[in-house]
């Protein structure tokens, strides 16, 4: 019989073989079958290495699976442990505490600053495996479900299919921190089609994010509340949505081009809700809205803020209406539909060192036209104007228009 630890290796192990397990010095031994060893929970200490040839291994605690730095957490049912992983130790310094790994079924923490978890899937493999799988699956790199099935009311449970945090620690002032970056990489050239609100996805189109509702279910579902929601938790965002100056095709934010930041369909718009409460809901009602009901491009208008004024043009760029800027505006013009006894009209509100004049400037040969019923035709003109005179300046010359009272000229 060969001496201990010098047996020839067997090509394979089927399970019923009896294996001898011994301490390194060979003093204590234990007989076990391969199936018994495979079914035994393995608690292993971290190796401290990353590559297999240097001694790296996977660490497992019973039914929980910890990789890398996560294996430093002893998988106990308390956060107050003597030996913590680096993430729990960092979270313990904050107001919320080290909750991440305490409730984790599986976790991977990088010890070396590398990617903690990588997943990939290929459509070519999905196509090749369709006979084996019985269908052609969607190729998904990472899939997650958070199921809300607690029907008690009230309840404190909340479902998250994905949750992430990016922490900026004190003194980090050079590089930004991202909760998530989604990169769309197009290696296939221009897409075969155009993405529009009426046809969002085109052949070959590459999209950084798509937010759907319904999960592909064909029955039993209802409309979801919102695609993107910004909340304070408890801090606020300085900007809700920000487009980098060169992030849109067509312009770099400084040239004369144009980049389309948001595209919506007809009858879709933007609402500003009021802080009023109605039906026990604050913000239920809209106080202002901006939307379009234009059904043909040739009937549309464009709103543009330019260096030389605020302009409304048609879709060909031809000017319809403009407001020119003033370096030192001292007057404001109010256009109102009168209330009570006030008449609808245009009112000049005089400002400091301003002018009370209201100018009307027709083109050469043009007219100022007004439509009004004719009163007292054929009557003699009174010798005096009871209401005084209205001052008009036409082509640089002052004129006075007499203002006769109703009693002077009749109804």
Brief sketch in words of this structure:
The protein is mostly beta strands and 411 residues long.
Report the C-alpha radius of gyration, rounded: 38 Å
Outline: elongated
Percent of residues in helical segments? under 10%
Give the N-to-C terminal Cα separation.
Answer: 136 Å
Task: Give the count of helical stretches.
Answer: 5
Q: What string gives the helices and strands in order? A: EEHEEHEHHEEEEEEEEEEEH
Describe the main β-sheet briefly.
3 strands, mixed
Strand coverage percent: 15-25%
Summarize the structure in words.
This protein has 411 residues and is mainly beta. It has a domain at 379-411. Helices cover 6% and strands 18% of the residues. It contains 5 helices and 16 strands. The strands form 7 sheets. It has a 3-stranded mixed beta sheet, with no helix packed on it. A 3-stranded antiparallel beta sheet has the order 10-11-12, with no helix packed on it. The termini are far apart.
SSE order and pairing:
Layout: E1 18-22, E2 29-33, H1 34-39, E3 59-61, E4 64-68, H2 86-91, E5 106-109, H3 123-128, H4 130-133, E6 269-273, E7 277-278, E8 281-282, E9 286-291, E10 301-306, E11 309-314, E12 319-323, E13 332-336, E14 345-349, E15 389-394, E16 397-402, H5 406-409
Parallel strand pairs: 4-5
Antiparallel strand pairs: 1-2, 3-4, 6-9, 7-8, 10-11, 11-12, 13-14, 15-16
């Amino acid at each position: 019989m060969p001496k201990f630890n010098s047996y020839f290796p067997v090509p394979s192990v089927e399970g019923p073989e009896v294996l001898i397990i011994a301490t390194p010095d060979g003093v204590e031994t234990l007989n076990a079958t391969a199936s018994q060893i495979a079914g035994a929970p393995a608690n292993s200490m971290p190796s401290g290495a990353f590559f297999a040839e240097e001694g790296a291994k996977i660490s497992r605690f019973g039914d929980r699976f910890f990789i890398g730095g996560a294996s430093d957490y002893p998988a106990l049912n308390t956060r107050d442990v003597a030996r913590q992983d680096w993430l729990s130790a960092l979270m313990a310094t904050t107001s919320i505490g080290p909750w991440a790994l305490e409730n984790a079924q599986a976790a991977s923490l990088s010890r070396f600053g590398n990617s903690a978890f990588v997943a990939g899937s290929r459509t070519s493999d999905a196509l090749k495996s369709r006979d084996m799988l019985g269908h052609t699956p969607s190729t998904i790199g990472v899939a997650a479900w958070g199921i809300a099935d607690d029907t008690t009311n009230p309840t404190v449970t909340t479902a998250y299919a994905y949750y992430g945090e990016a922490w900026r620690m004190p003194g980090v002032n050079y590089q930004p921190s991202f909760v998530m970056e989604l990169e769309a990489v197009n290696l296939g050239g221009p897409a075969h089609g155009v993405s529009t609100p009426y046809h969002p996805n085109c052949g070959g189109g590459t999209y950084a994010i798509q937010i759907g509702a319904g999960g592909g279910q064909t029955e039993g579902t209802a409309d979801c509340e919102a695609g993107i929601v910004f909340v304070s938790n408890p801090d606020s965002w300085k900007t809700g949505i920000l487009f980098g100056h060169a992030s849109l095709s067509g312009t770099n934010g400084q040239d004369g081009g144009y980049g389309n930041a948001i595209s919506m369909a007809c009858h879709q718009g933007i609402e500003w809700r009021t802080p009023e409460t109605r039906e026990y809901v604050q913000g239920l009602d809209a106080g202002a809205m901006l939307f379009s009901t234009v059904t043909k491009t040739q009937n549309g208008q464009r709103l543009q803020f330019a260096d030389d004024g605020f302009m409304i043009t048609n879709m060909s760029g031809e000017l319809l209406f403009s407001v020119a800027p003033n370096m030192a505006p001292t007057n404001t013009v109010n256009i109102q539909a009168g209330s009570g006894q006030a008449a609808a009209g245009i009112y000049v509100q005089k400002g400091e060192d301003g002018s009370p004049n209201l100018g009307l400037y027709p083109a050469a040969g043009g007219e100022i036209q007004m439509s009004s019923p004719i009163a007292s035709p054929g009557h003699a003109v009174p010798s005096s104007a009871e209401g005084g005179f209205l001052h008009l300046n036409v082509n640089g010359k002052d004129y006075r228009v007499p203002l006769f009272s109703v009693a002077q000229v009749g109804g």
